[in-house]
C-alpha cells in the first residue's frame, strides 16, 4: 500500500507521540522520532521495539512485519533532522507558546509543501498557526490515548487550513487503521465538546442532593446503557485532567451555561482526591479495585396498596401493564382512592410540579422514569417528592423490585437522572451540528469511538424521540429556570416537523 506520507516526523516521544509513531510505522511510513529531552527519543524507540516484540510473541504479527516496523522508526536529536519529512506531527506539552515556537522552527527546516500537524486536544489550531508564513498547511490531527486502540482521529481545519491538507490527513488516518472525523477549529473539537454533558449534568444532580455518586453511576449504566458511570469515568481519567478541560471549554465558550463546571470537582482537585491514581476519588480503591458501597435492599411491605396511574403518565399503557404484571391491584378510578399509591411518569418535570399541577395528594405520589422501554433496562428509577410518606415510598420500591430487577429511589429531580443526562447530551450534540462544528455522521462516529457511548448522541435522540427530548428540555427549563436546558434550534426544528436528528439540509 502506498501511504500519503512516506516519511514523517513525530515531535514528542511520550505516550501520545509513541502511539502515533507506532501506527504510522505499521502503515508503512518511515518515522523520525524527536524529543527535547536527551535520550527520550531513543527510549521511545526502544519502547516501540518492546511493543512489537510483545505483539510478535502473542502471534499478532509475524517476524517479518515486526522487523520491518522496527526498521522504519529512527530516533533523531534535532529539528534539522526532519528536513526531508513530508509530514511532521507535534505531540508536545499543551502550551500554546511552546507549540508556536516549534512550528516556527519547523517552518524554516521542512519543504514548503510539507504538512505540519498538531495533536493538540484543547488549543486553537488557528492560534498555533498564526504568524507562520504558510498557515494553510497547518491542521489539527488529534489522536486519543492509547493511540493504537482508540480508533478515531479528529482532523481539524484552522481558519486558513487548506482543504487538501485535511483531505490528505484524513486519508492517512484511514491508512493507519483509524476513522477520520473532520472538525472546525472550535473549543473541544468534537469529542471533548460532545462529552461535556455527561459529567457536568451528573455533577449538577449530585449537587442538588438528588442521589449519591454510586446511585447515579448505577442508573446511567443499568438504565441508560453507558459502559461507565460518569463518576467512575472521572476517577479513571483523574480530576487533574478532567476538571481543567471542563473549565477550559466553559471559558473558551464565554461561559456558555451548557458547559458550566462544578464546585464539586474543583474542591476535590484542590484536596488532591483525583481518582484511581491517588486511590481515592468518588470511590476508594484498594490495590486498584474500586470499593463500591452496598445498595439498599428492597423493603419488606406487609400490605401493598392499590396503584393509581396518572392519565398524563409517559408510556401509561406500558406502565399499567407493568404494574399489573408485578401483581398490584390497579385503581381504575377517575381520581385516586384515598389509600392508593399514586404513580406519575413525567418527562422533564419533577414529581412535585406534577402533583401540584394535577392536584394530586403529594404524600402518596411517587414518580417513575418511563423514558426508556422497561424491557430494555436493567434498572428502574423512582423519585419521591418532599411530602412523600415513607410507607408509600417503601411500597413503591417493593412493588417495582418484585421481579428481581434493580430499583433506585432518588429524591425529587426534574427529569430524574437519565432524562436529564441524555437530554443534555443530545442537546449539546444537536447544537454542534447547528454550529457546523462537524457533520452529523462524523459526530456520531467520533462519540462512539472516542467516548464509548452505547450509540451516537443523535441516534440516542432519535431512539428516545426528538419530541420527547424537546419535552424533557422545555420542562427542565421550567423547573430550573436555567438557560443550560434551552433546546438547540437543530433539535427544536427537527422535532417540530418529525425529522431525524441526523437529517442535513440540502
From TrEMBL:
Q: Where is the 3-hydroxyacyl-CoA dehydrogenase NAD binding domain?
A: 8-185
Name any one GO molecular function: oxidoreductase activity, acting on the CH-OH group of donors, NAD or NADP as acceptor
List the Gene3D superfamilies hit by this protein, alphabetically: N-(1-d-carboxylethyl)-l-norvaline Dehydrogenase, domain 2, NAD(P)-binding Rossmann-like Domain
* InterPro entries associated with the record: 3-OHacyl-CoA_DH_NAD-bd, 3HC_DH_C, 6-PGluconate_DH-like_C_sf, 6PGD_dom2, NAD(P)-bd_dom_sf
What is the name listed in the Swiss-Prot or TrEMBL entry for this protein? 3-hydroxyadipyl-CoA dehydrogenase
Swiss-Prot/TrEMBL keywords: Oxidoreductase
3-hydroxyacyl-CoA dehydrogenase C-terminal domain ranges (all copies): 188-285, 415-494
Q: What is the lineage of its organism?
A: Bacteria, Pseudomonadati, Pseudomonadota, Betaproteobacteria, Burkholderiales
On the tree of life, the source organism's domain of life is Bacteria
Primary enzyme class:
oxidoreductase
Enzyme Commission designation: 1.1.1.-
Q: In its UniProt record, which GO terms are filed under biological process?
A: fatty acid metabolic process
> What is the native source organism of this protein?
Variovorax paradoxus
- Signal peptide boundaries: none
Amino acid at each position: 500500500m502506498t501511504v500519503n506520507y512516506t516519511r514523517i516526523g513525530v515531535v514528542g516521544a511520550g505516550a501520545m507521540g509513541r502511539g502515533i509513531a507506532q501506527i504510522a510505522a505499521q502503515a508503512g511510513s518511515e518515522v523520525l522520532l524527536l524529543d527535547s529531552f536527551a535520550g527520550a527519543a531513543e527510549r521511545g524507540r526502544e519502547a516501540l521495539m518492546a511493543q512489537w516484540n510483545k505483539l510478535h510473541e502473542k502471534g499478532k504479527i509475524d517476524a517479518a512485519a515486526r522487523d520491518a516496523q522496527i526498521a522504519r522508526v529512527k530516533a533523531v536529536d534535532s529539528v534539522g533532522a526532519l528536513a526531508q519529512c513530508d509530514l511532521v506531527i507535534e505531540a508536545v506539552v499543551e502550551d500554546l507558546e511552546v507549540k508556536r515556537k516549534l512550528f516556527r522552527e519547523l517552518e524554516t527546516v521542512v519543504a514548503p509543501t510539507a504538512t505540519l500537524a498538531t495533536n493538540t486536544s484543547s488549543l486553537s489550531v488557528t492560534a498555533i498557526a498564526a504568524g507562520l508564513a504558510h498557515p494553510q498547511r497547518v491542521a489539527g490531527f488529534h489522536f486519543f490515548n492509547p493511540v493504537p486502540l482508540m480508533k478515531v482521529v479528529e482532523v481539524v481545519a484552522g481558519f486558513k487550513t487548506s482543504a487538501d491538507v485535511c483531505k490528505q490527513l484524513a486519508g492517512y488516518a484511514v491508512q493507519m487503521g483509524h476513522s477520520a472525523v473532520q472538525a472546525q477549529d472550535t473549543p473541544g473539537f468534537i469529542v471533548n465538546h460532545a462529552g461535556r454533558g455527561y459529567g457536568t449534568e451528573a455533577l449538577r444532580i449530585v449537587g442538588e442532593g438528588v442521589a449519591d455518586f454510586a446511585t447515579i453511576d448505577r442508573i446511567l449504566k443499568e438504565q441508560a446503557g453507558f459502559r461507565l458511570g460518569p463518576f467512575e469515568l472521572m476517577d479513571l481519567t483523574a480530576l487533574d485532567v478532567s476538571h481543567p478541560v471542563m473549565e477550559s471549554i466553559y471559558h473558551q465558550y464565554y461561559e456558555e451555561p451548557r458547559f458550566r463546571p462544578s464546585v464539586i470537582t474543583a474542591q476535590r482537585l484542590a484536596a488532591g482526591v483525583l481518582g484511581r491514581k491517588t486511590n481515592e476519588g468518588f470511590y476508594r480503591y484498594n490495590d486498584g479495585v474500586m470499593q463500591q458501597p452496598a445498595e439498599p435492599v428492597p423493603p419488606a411491605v406487609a400490605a401493598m396498596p392499590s396503584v393509581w396511574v396518572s392519565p398524563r403518565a409517559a408510556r401509561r399503557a406500558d406502565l399499567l401493564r407493568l404494574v399489573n404484571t408485578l401483581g398490584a391491584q390497579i385503581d381504575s378510578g377517575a381520581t385516586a382512592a384515598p389509600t392508593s399509591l399514586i404513580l406519575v411518569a413525567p418527562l422533564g418535570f419533577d414529581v412535585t410540579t406534577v402533583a401540584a399541577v394535577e392536584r394530586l395528594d403529594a404524600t402518596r405520589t411517587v414518580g417513575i422514569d418511563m423514558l426508556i422501554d422497561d424491557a430494555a433496562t436493567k434498572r428502574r428509577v423512582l423519585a419521591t417528592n418532599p411530602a412523600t410518606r415513607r410507607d408509600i415510598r417503601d411500597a413503591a420500591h417493593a412493588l417495582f423490585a418484585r421481579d428481581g430487577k434493580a430499583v433506585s429511589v432518588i429524591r425529587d429531580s426534574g427529569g430524574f437522572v437519565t432524562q436529564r443526562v441524555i437530554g443534555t447530551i443530545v442537546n449539546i450534540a444537536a447544537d454542534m451540528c447547528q454550529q457546523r462544528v462537524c457533520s452529523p455522521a462524523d459526530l456520531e462516529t467520533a462519540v462512539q469511538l472516542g467516548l464509548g457511548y452505547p450509540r451516537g448522541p443523535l441516534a440516542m435522540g432519535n431512539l428516545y424521540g426528538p419530541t420527547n427530548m424537546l419535552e424533557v428540555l422545555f420542562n427542565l427549563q421550567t423547573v430550573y429556570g436555567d438557560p443550560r436546558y434551552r433546546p438547540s434550534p437543530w433539535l427544536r426544528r427537527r422535532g417540530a416537523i418529525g425529522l431525524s436528528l441526523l437529517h442535513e439540509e440540502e
